[in-house]
């Protein structure tokens, strides 16, 4: 789902949305919202341009040229040249010819036909594009499928958010319900993989919304704790959780 135009985008989220847009994976209201944002977000427009450049070899198409009447006559002549001799009317085969001469001439015409080779090249190009699109679709589906999931629960065991971990290293938080955030406060997301090291902050948001988490230099594995706490708007002043825990949960293998 495309975010509202007034919400900031992180580099990873911006790049992901731009790639989905170029591949035609954003539709309906999300597409309209994305294109509105594209008009005012220069960084997003730059990401779209980079993706379009990346796929230029696949996306390049020649301008349409209306066929002339002469071209149709040439096509009919070429088709007649490769029609088997047995399929010709009897009157067309009445003149004696040296055995094999007509067939050899037709094969030569077919071999040297620019139309035939253009058709073969076009068929190959179409097959290449379809294969590339299919591979991109398969890669995109694999990229979207999380490998680990952590369901963050409140004290009353209500699911408040989900942390999804993907095979390419991306980690994102998806809220499942609204979370009240008082004025001057923010939601800080933490992860804990070793109690001797202690929790590390991986995200700070002013309200409950989908957001990528920063785990580039941190370990990530099964049974790893994630939690959300209520902190000052600028984040915890100590580098450790200081406010009440809103929700928490540990990672598990995605089904």
Task: Summarize it.
This protein has 255 residues and is of the alpha+beta class.
Mean pLDDT: 77
Q: Which structural class do you get from the secondary structure elements?
A: alpha+beta
- The total count of helices amounts to 7
Care to count the β-strands?
Answer: 8
**Residue ranges: pLDDT <50 for 5 or more in a row?**
90-94
Strand order of the largest sheet: 5-4-7-8-1-2-3-6
Radius of gyration: 31 Å
Distance between the termini: 23 Å
Oligomer: single chain
Reported by name, the CATH topology of the largest domain is Immunoglobulin-like
Name of the CATH architecture of the largest domain: Sandwich
SSE pattern, N- to C-terminal:
HHHHHHHEEEEEEEE
Name the helicity range: 25-40%
The dominant shape is elongated
Largest sheet: 8 strands, antiparallel
Number of domains: 3
**Assigned CATH class of the largest domain:** Mainly Beta
Percent strand equals 15-25%
Task: Report on the architecture of this protein.
The chain is α+β, with helices and mostly antiparallel strands and 255 residues long. The chain folds into three domains: 11-60, no CATH class; 61-111, no CATH class; 146-253, Immunoglobulin-like (Sandwich). The protein is built from seven helices and eight strands. Strands 5-4-7-8-1-2-3-6 form an eight-stranded antiparallel beta sheet. A hairpin with a 5-residue loop joins strand 1 and strand 2. Helix 1 crosses helix 3. The longest helix is centred in the middle third of the chain and has 31 residues, at 114-144. The chain is elongated, with a radius of gyration of 31 Å. The two termini are 23 Å apart.
């Amino acid at each position: 789902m495309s975010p509202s135009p007034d919400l900031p985008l992180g580099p990873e989220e911006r790049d992901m949305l731009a790639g989905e847009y170029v591949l035609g994976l954003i539709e309906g209201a999300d597409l309209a919202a994305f294109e509105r944002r594209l008009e005012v977000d220069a960084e997003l427009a730059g990401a779209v341009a980079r993706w379009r450049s990346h796929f230029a070899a696949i996306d390049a198409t020649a301008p349409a040229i209306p066929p002339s009447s002469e071209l149709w006559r040439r096509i009919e002549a070429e088709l007649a040249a490769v029609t088997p001799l047995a399929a010709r009317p009897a009157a067309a085969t009445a003149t004696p010819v040296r055995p094999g001469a007509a067939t050899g001439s037709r094969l030569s015409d077919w071999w040297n036909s620019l139309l035939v080779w253009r058709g073969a090249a076009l068929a190959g190009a179409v097959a290449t594009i379809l294969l590339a699109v299919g591979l991109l679709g398969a890669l995109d589906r694999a990229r979207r499928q999380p490998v680990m999931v952590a369901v963050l629960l409140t004290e009353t065991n209500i699911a408040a958010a989900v942390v999804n971990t993907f095979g390419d290293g991306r980690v994102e938080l998806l809220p499942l319900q609204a979370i009240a955030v008082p004025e001057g406060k923010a939601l800080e997301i933490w992860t804990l993989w070793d109690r001797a090291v202690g929790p590390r902050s991986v995200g700070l948001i002013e309200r409950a919304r989908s957001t990528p988490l920063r785990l580039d230099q941190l370990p990530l594995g099964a049974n790893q704790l994630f939690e959300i706490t209520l902190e000052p708007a600028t984040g915890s002043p100590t580098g450790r959780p200081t406010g009440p825990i809103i929700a928490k949960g540990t990672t598990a293998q995605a089904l």
